Amino acid sequence: MRNSTLIAALAALSAAIYTLPAGAADELSPRIIVSGEGHASAAPDMALISLTVLREAETARAALNDNSKAMAEVLTAMKAAGIADKDLQTAGFSIQPRYVYPDQNKPEPEQPKIVGYSVVNTLSLRIRDLSKLGEIIDQAVTLGVNQGGDITFVKDDTSGLLDEARKKAMENAVAKAKTLTAAAGVATGRILEISEQSFQPQPIPMLRAEMAMAKSASDAVPVAAGENSYRVNVNVTFEIKQ
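RE: above sequence
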């Protein structure tokens, strides 16, 4: 009975050692990992910009009143220019005290003093008619916008462009894998894994504080939308046939 039990235990242990779990064969197979990159370009059809109104005064109330009046005029003008409500959004608002820091080298240092307040209100816009972009910037400055954020030229729908870039990235990865394996005297087998990263255009810094020095509203701000490039990177793992 003892011998039978020992033999059964050894048989079970042997089966556990030599039976690979599902997917273990794939993990042990020779493989090659390559990266591929694909690009697709197109002219943008929309601009994303931010317009900021900064006002300062001795009291927070006065600064807020001045800021609110200017921003109300900007909003009214943007709607009159054909920008829909869904494309207008408050992106930031703050009220901050302004301090004066006395000379700290005095025998008895003084505490900082509040000498006024600043109110900042930022409006984010989507401009779908790019032909109006320069005019809109000019008009906003005339109405009191004196700071700005970034501008980004984008495509409203990028799905087709990204799909095109994905296909090019995969073609690039496959071509690399075939070149490498052919040079090594082997061949590519089935694909074991694919991962992807996509990259879209970044904002272009502009519309800084120098907006306050812009030309008169009759001179539209010159802008050039150019063309956007969308990039997709893929990492592909191939099985190697030997």
